[in-house]
Design brief:
507 residues, alpha/beta, Rossmann fold, N-(1-d-carboxylethyl)-l-norvaline Dehydrogenase, domain 2, Single alpha-helices involved in coiled-coils or other helix-helix interfaces, 3 domains, seven-stranded mixed beta sheet, three-stranded antiparallel beta sheet, 12 strands, globular, binds 6-phosphogluconic acid
Amino acid sequence: MDQDAPQCEVGFIGLGVMGKNLALNLADNGYNIAAFDVDHDKIADVTQQDILENGSERIVPCSSFTELLSKLSSPHLIVLSVPAGHPVDDVCHKLIDAGICADDIVIDTGNSKWNDTVRREQEYEGKFLFFSTAVSGGEVGARFGPSLMPSGDRYAWARIEPMWKAIAAKVDPDTGKPIERFEPGNPVIEGEPCATYIGPNGAGHFVKTVHNGIEYADMQLICEAYHLMRSCLDMTPKEIAAIFREWNQGLLDSYLVEISAEVLEAVDSDTGQPLVDVILDCAGQKGTGLWTAVSALEVGSPATTITHSVFARALSALKEDRVLASKHLSGPQIDAAIVGDRGEFIQQLHDALYCSKICAYAQGFQLMKTASDEHDWDLDFAGIAKIWRAGCIIRAVFLQSITNAYDTDDDLHNLLLDPYFAEQISNYQSNWRQAIAKSTLLGIPCGGFSSALAYYDSYRTETLPANLLQGQRDYFGAHTFERIDKPRGKHFHVEWSRPGQPMVKMK
Ligand code: 6PG
């Protein structure tokens, strides 16, 4: 390729794990790329890999932003894969200095905070078109087909759409299952692409944030099932892996159950022990689960299982405290009579995981609905469920049922009200309750399962005790309350009789 001619369709900035693999994926799909990273070794690495895998020299190394712009056809299309936060703005300012124009498009593919995306779109208006695309799927997804959640200017989307649809994961339209092929130079071109326009400004990053919140919940729920099998049935990691493989053939068929089995089967090369037994039980987090929980609290959308999953990681990180407390605080012993029949208990855990998973997704979709109404994003929930069927971390057969639910009723208030899911929970809830009752009696924490059940039971309860709560608030703070026999929105206060004073009077 003549490297002096402006012949690349895409500029790529940031060649870390995600950036490198997205760039190679684009090259696989026939795109010529002008590539830059502050670390020149990373540029050399990706260009070499491109030559080795494609023999095509589609990735052209650039040593500066100016050189990168000079290699691109106009208007410029530039993809950023840099860490979320100030690096995104640093690169944007450098591109402005290098001469980027008003109709050029810059796409942020990082795990950015959705409100930063809203701010950036406004801040860079007139300088260039700031567009965002949240990416899920990790390293392998980026390389062979991620799930993409693009949002921003519609004109920019028209230009970006063919590119994103080419590199995205694909779903078999007949089965709703991913079409997977992990071969460099031989991308999947058939099937339905997991990339759809999500909405204006920060909508895509918000949806990705909720994806990650659900991911936290999914992972926590699987871990609780593992913990209960381990503690109550004394099962080995290998035996639990076999159960997960079995579960992965049915209702729980998902990437996260599949990789959990693989993690449990792995053996530590140093000690010969199951690897999971030498991994410290302190969970890390980069913050997207926290953002989901904060967003849920801010808009008052009860994402209790997601939020619990964030706190469960925080609790796990208090290792020293837990070691100390384990020597001082008492709890019950494992009692085989409570655990009951092994096969029956494993089935109860399966059903608890399944029902809790339904609730976690119901919470995530409810949160997206609330945010969509608040920000006028007009989110298409069937479309979102569709692009989560392949490529992303929460990909699962289950997402086809969610797609069906929103295809049938795009104004569904809550996934729990969909007839299919309502029936599923009705069929499996008895075992869900048994699993929680047993783990509570045995002292094994299962906050994911139980927060989901409390969500379900609260959501289906016509009268909650918030009447008393409103009375308490009015009593100590004159905060007023609504009455069941008066129109909504009319507020009342009572002169409460204090001890030794006469009866209440309504105002
Ligand atoms: C994905 C993942 C990805 C990542 C996050 C979460 O969709 O590809 O969600 O975004 O794994 O960084 O990581 P933490 O568990 O560290 O928050």
